[in-house]
Amino acid sequence: MIDLHYCATPNGMKVALMLEETGLAHRIIPYDIFEGDQLRPGFGRINPNRKLPAIVDHDPGAGESPLPVFESGAILQYLGEKTGQFLAPAGPLRSRTIQWLTWQVAALGPMGGQASHFLRYAPADQDYAVERYTREYDRLLAVLENRLAESPYLAGEEYTIADMAVWPGQASAFVMGRQGSERPATRRWYEAIAARPAVQRATARADLKAPDKYLGRHQKLSEAEWSNMFGDAMHAAVRGD
Fold this sequence. Notes:
four-stranded mixed beta sheet, 7% strand
């Protein structure tokens, strides 16, 4: 059994997709990040960075104790190695998979996250930050389009954990109308993955869906919610205050 400590974000959905695809027995443990569930002391023993998702593998093998794994890219790689699925054991395919997975967690994801923050959460008059991050995110989307114009999937001919890492953020963009006809290769790839039975199961699950309060284009957080997400409460939890 694997526990998935989950919040309904693209990062959480990456891991949910992998669990559905591999058929590993798992349970979802939901967190409300606006309410500060991630700041509870017990979660700090699973992920000292206090971010979602994280997993606990209760059967890591060889008589080992339950193993926590945090950071979405590390979780995908761990599950790929555990199951022997969606991550080649060696060779060029493995290398390309890790390269594109790293690109997502080091570039596409953070730039998209910063663009989203300044568009959705930050006070008004953040024009420089909005332009900086949205332009860089747009550049990275062009990198994605170029790659998918020459390859069915990010690592080559096969669907891998690299695609699982990228797809949820792009799924959100297509659903919200933020991706259009100017990226036909990305749309082809998006639709091919959306048609996979495991992806359809995951996206249909009620316990994986985002609550309405997470979906607003411009969020107005309460003082407590801001503190839990970005402010004093988050910092205090990491310091152990």
